[in-house]
Model the fold of this input.
Amino acid sequence: MKTIRDFDLKNKTVIIRCDFNVPMKDGIITDDNRIRESLKTINYAIKKGAKIILLSHLGRVKTEEDKIKNNLKPVCQRLSELLERNVIFSEETRGRKVRSLVNDLKPGEVLLLQNTRYEDIPGKKESGNDSYLGRYWASLGDIFVNDAFGTAHRKHASNVGIARHLPSGIGFLMEKELKYLNKIVKKPVRPYVVIMGGAKISDKITITKNLLEKADYLLIGGAMAFTFLRAAGFNIGASKYEKEAIDFCTDLLNKYSEKIVLPIDIVVSDEISDNVKPKTRFINEIEDDEIGLDIGPSTLKVFKQYLDDSKTIFWNGPVGYFEIESFAGGTKKLCDIITNTKAMTIVGGGDTASAVINLGYRDKFTHISTGGGASLEFLEGKTLPALKVIDEKSS
Done:
């Protein structure tokens, strides 16, 4: 597959699809990791004398109100700070003004277009891979570079649509993602331990089965654990679980009893709030009105025994309600355990990436993926559409 290195960028207009889908609160970016991860590719294009157009989505855009809260202007401001140069911003995604800004670009200058998902009103032109929109964006440039791993599993106008019409390759972030995830897919160094958390098992049924076939052990935490515990016959009180996934979890527990490791104690509360005093219960002691919100200290000791001996660790999904300090202890202590092993340690994007970065572990893992859904689908063995189109053109 071609990379950005394979093209002569001098005086060329290069369209780079980035993943600037960063978490924001009241217009303020709360985690700029995805912006930082794009810098290497953008700086390379600047150094090589390209005229650069950046595309990205931000959030979901279903209403006019969504446009207001998902405006990319704060991202443009932060990107300007990180690049230490002015990034030109277009309030529009296409049209006469966009064409004029593109025509005025000089080598080394950077233009960021407005949120590509503005084009989802009306008609979902971006997320539906509208052929006209893909051709239009492609008409703005000479070369297309996809550096947005987080959307590689999506067939959008701003990735697949553009790549169909231009010489295309991948950027340095995409290359790094594939390098580390391929190590897990092709030949993980054993013992290979997977940690799964987060809320839903139903979204991860296929990948959970796939990982259980390949991994030596699967450690389960987060709300996901309560569906397994319920399937195993425990009273989980008022804890969140998925009734429709009980049979699936029962089958896995029967088939992979020696691989699946469930919590033995849980941090509980009668409400989800900052102003509560949590209690720790063994899993056979949870009361009817109690909600499980984190893994307990005894569970962490059990998990540590498996992790200390591992050579490869893949982690997807926080093991507790980490947004509230009282229930962040399990996720934080798990970070300590993992980062003190000698294993290759990979975090599978999404909430897990936000958690480990916000808890201060940005530089302590081997790799923190920028794509939660994309990393899971890649490990599941699915073909990612945004990569397939580039690979087909390269061959």
User: Anything to note?
Assistant: The mean pLDDT is 94. The two ends are 8 Å apart (CA to CA). The chain has 15 helices and 17 strands.
